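note to self: dont lose this again. the chain is below, predicted strucutre after it. 201 aa total, dont forget to put it in the shared folder this time
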Amino acid sequence: MTHTLPELPYAPTALEPHISAKTFEFHYGKHHKAYVDNLNKLIAGTDLESKTLEEVVAASAKDASKAGIFNNAAQVWNHTFYWNSMKPNGGGEPTGKLMDKIKEDFGDFGKFKEEFKNAGVTQFGSGWAWLVLEGGKLKVTKTPNADMPLVHGQIPLLTMDVWEHAYYIDYQNRRPDYAQTFIDKLINWDFVSKNFELAMK
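---
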């Protein structure tokens, strides 16, 4: 199966002024596309060629001989998940069962926001901040480079990309400002809630 670059769930201008069309031009149009193209080249003619993206990730994780395949496959998955983690006029607060669970596991919504921002800001170098479900509990985690919750027995609900190419055009070196804007203005809580409900079934 040939992996393809999925369409964005909104126009490249839809998240302005928080994330510019110029950032999407590079981040989606060049970086995400390059991961897709590289993955297809790396698996061509191998037994992974007919696998789904998730199957490729699982088969290549923790196998040093397949590090290149894992890095590209995981980055394709992570980026698609990231685009869906945002929406125009996002941010605010979740409702219903997800909000109840956030209060139960973090104490209150403010504590979650603080932990999530801190995970993104303190991830050294490139990586991701995540809200995951693990053992029936919500937790905030962070992963370096292409690493992701799926290979650690965790269910991802939300992610924030903190590779420099995610924010540098718009925020330069101000990663904390990008993280705060992501939380306050961009999170797609409908997507997060849907992931949570599926995970709890």
